[in-house]
Amino acid sequence: MSKVEEIRSRILSARKNRAEPRLKNEAMVLSTLLAETKTDVLKKENREITDRDLELTAKRFLKNLRTSLEYEQKSSASDGVIEGALKFEISVISDFAPEEPTKSDKSISEIVQELMSTNPEQKNPKWFVGQVMKAKQGDADPKEVIKIVEASIA
């Protein structure tokens, strides 16, 4: 069963089982994810959504939810209700996001070393940041990349 089919099945199941509040909440989160994915796809082209489309939308959602959770946890006015809701949404959407590669200095260092060996004339740290971000699909801290580049250039 594809991820898109699984979401549709879980939404339908939740609608049939009206007594379970957790399932209702899960269905709302999944409906939003599915609707947002459809919107993203239809902006570009008129076709059915794929699992890859769903994964990209889920990844973006998770990033935004985690940022919101971080701000909520730092807030002095937080009563825990919003934090709980955010954690719930993260747990539901995590099932449909691609597996996150683990971040490590070593892999960024390897990318930087490879770039330096193939582009020895390049000395601009921002150029390396762009190339590393591209290689890691945006999953790298630019400050960390600059530190590694500066240490390698020195």
Question: Could you characterize what this model shows?
Answer:
It is a single chain. This protein is mainly alpha-helical. It is elongated. It contains 7 helices and no strands. The model has no long low-confidence stretch (mean pLDDT 85). 73% of the residues lie in helices and 0% in strands. The chain has 2 domains: 3-94, Hypothetical Protein Yqey, Chain: A, domain1, CATH 1.10.1510; 105-153.
Helicity, as a percent range: over 70%
Helix count from the secondary structure assignment: 7
What is the name of the CATH topology of the largest domain?
A: Hypothetical Protein Yqey, Chain: A, domain1
Give the helices and strands as they follow along the chain.
Answer: HHHHHHH
In the CATH hierarchy, the architecture of the largest domain is: Orthogonal Bundle
Question: Keywords, please?
Answer:
154 residues, mainly alpha, Hypothetical Protein Yqey, Chain: A, domain1, 0% strand
List the helices and strands and how they pair.
Blueprint: H1 3-16, H2 21-44, H3 51-74, H4 81-94, H5 105-118, H6 125-135, H7 142-153
Helix pairs in contact: 1-2, 2-3, 2-4, 3-4, 5-6, 5-7, 6-7
Question: Brief description of this entry?
Answer:
With 154 residues, the protein is mainly alpha-helical.
